[in-house]
Design a protein that fits this description.
CATH architecture of the largest domain: Alpha-Beta Barrel
Radius of gyration: 21 Å
CATH superfamily of the largest domain: Aldolase class I
Number of helices: 13
Distance between the termini: 33 Å
Strand order of the largest sheet: 3-4-5-6-11-12-13-14-15-16
Structural class: alpha/beta
Bound molecules: iron/sulfur cluster
Largest sheet: 10 strands, mixed
Strand content: 15-25%
Amino acid sequence: MKNFFEYDFAEFQQFLAENNFEKFRARQVFDAVYKAKLFEPALFPSIGEPLKKFLAENVEFVAARRVGLKNSSDATGKYLFELSDGNFVESVLLQAPSDDGKLRRTLCMSTQVGCASGCRFCASALRGFVRNLNLGEILAQSLPFVEERELDGRKRRVFLFENIVVMGMGEPLANFDNLIKALGILNDPSKFAFGARRITVSTCGLADKIRELARMKFPFRLAISLHGATDEVRSQIMPINKKFPLGEVLSAAMEFSKACGRMITLEYILIKGLNDTFDQARKLAQIAKTLHAHVNLIPYNRVEGLEWKRPDPSRRRAFADILERAGVSCTLRREKGSQIEAACGQLALKKKLGDSLS
Ligand code: SF4
């Protein structure tokens, strides 16, 4: 059964016509899904029972079923989705005040089951790579998060998050085509019309794909996981550094910045005794200044089965101070989500291993 999101409008018209339904019904179905954000044919307005039944039996609207939730007191929710083949992926809904003091919710989505990149601090890597998510499975992680709001005097169903980050389980740029299609559907003004500047894709540094994004003038934000400011340190925790050493990643990042005219974010997980030295901080500051990049410092979230630890608060602060004194725009993240195993892949890994979800 083909997933609804695989159809463009003309194809869907054709599909209905071939099955003896009027072509104009395609507009009603597209509006029900993309404008009204209804994902069950039974709920579509202005559509008769025969078409509802046909759609329910012949088109897949939601490709993943939400089966688990963990909440933490820091306003972070982690959701587990079951796929049709019995695999699991997860997404995280984070809530935090932004610079203007308003609460913003950010949905963190996955693109693969497991991951082949093998970062040595990451829960997803413990499983190895299983498979890419298809288009429907990527989008399905956003579909349950809809709420009704009063807008312009009318009740409308809207996404209940304001930002999307693609940095859950998997390396997004290793599932390139499905990622680009999914982002296109989220951003398309005639579909979900979700602003490009509110979507960030995070990569562990696939330099060839970053260059491809530069060539296509990727309209979304890009974050690069650095986690080490020298090859020596980065290679200890990121095997991808062998294929794409730091110099290559940084030159691809520069190409992206120039082509897309947008500030890159450098993600840097602070791990005690490994990459939290002041020398690394100074080198990271130099890299960020050259790229005009923002740096996001993230204290390590403990992963069961891995030895790494986060530095103590004074060390984290001192590391951030070095960057700030060098004039680098930098955020030292609170440990949001640590209570619910929000390092990518931890919940899906537990489920796979048979643990129960609370
Ligand atoms: S950190 Fe990201 S890229 Fe690295 S193994 Fe985990 S999911 Fe893959």
